[in-house]
Fold:
Amino acid sequence: MHPPGADTVLVRHGDVNTKSTTVKRYMLRILVENLEAALEDRSVSGAVDRRWHRPLIATDEGDVEAAVEAAASTFGVVSASAAVTLEPDREAIYDVLDETARRHYTGGSFALEVNRADKQLPYTSEDVAREGGTVVWEAVEDEFEPEVDLEDPDLTFGVEIREEEAFVYLDSVSGPGGLPLGSQEPMVALVSGGIDSPVAAYEMMKRGSPIVPVYVDLGEYGGIDHEARAMETVRVLSQYAPNFDLRVYRVPGGEAVATLVEEMETGRMLSLRRFFYRAAERIAEQTGASGIVTGEAIGQKSSQTAQNLGVTSRVTDLPIHRPLLTRDKQEIVALAREIGTYSDSTIDAGCNRVAPDRAETNAQLERLLAVEPDGLLERATAAADDADLVEP
Ligand SMILES: Nc1ncnc2c1ncn2[C@@H]1O[C@H](COP(=O)(O)OP(=O)(O)OP(=O)(O)O)[C@@H](O)[C@H]1O
Structure:
């Protein structure tokens, strides 16, 4: 929903504001590039303009809602609104409020939210809120019984007044927040296509790190849809990153998994994790990534006890980031639904069971190394070198 004639998207960012001027300038430049890419990817016409420290998208009414959606799927953006641009003149603002109220008010409570950046103006935000509220009231009182509710209104009319222009808007669509993608170093994301790992990758992207997705092909243990599930979830993630390369490194792990199943019982899942991390480390070396991201959460599986995570992590010097470490499963599921990876993650992958009957929950490194197949880590490095790059 937008005011008649809306021609602009107001883009609000959050954490970028907390930065020093130099860092902010750097981050805003990346944000603008990402907004441009999001518009282009969706074939939405719009010109991104960075004025007054906050980007605006100039567009036309036909494209304005799509431009809001594009902005609201861009990391770093807290919210976006479709707005009409006008002179910073009270009468002009009231005319638009009048027209907007007649078009969109359908009863219930309303409020005006006024922000004024230019403190030199001869009127205050309160003046505009009071007078604008009266304009809205008078526009609709013949047909409805309007009510003002500043706490929890059914409809909010937004007015933002800057030095050279003013904006009137209705809705604010929430964005993901975080930092612009590309403002941090890349990370290798181990993506299995289950519910957790795509969410973990998304969380890293949200903090500005582009991901290098790595999927380990489990061969006959993977099941027919296992790979498809992983690829589909990365495809969903790639929609949040139109100007980044999210091709997936598919690492051939089938033989190593078969060896683990044949030769190892206790600790098998932990050695498999060590294989994953070592392969990820190799790809990080090749791509200049500065860490590894996994979907592990403490205590979620037997391989994810605090002790086991401590032991398996020692296979690499790179930091292993686990953004979901402290999350409950229900929270992770809710996030997966929100970002759009849930339905692909829950495709039945028909995997064959790799886990042994008795799970190791209290691994000791020496004990594990004593039973791990010889050369497993070298095989991980070689498998990473043999990985092919797959378009998700
Ligand atoms: N085949 C795989 N390829 C790449 N990474 C994997 C693979 N299997 C597991 N991982 C990584 O190891 C982590 C822990 O493995 P786990 O067995 O719990 O995964 P899962 O339950 O199959 O998937 P998810 O954790 O995504 O729900 C995953 O979150 C993921 O980061």
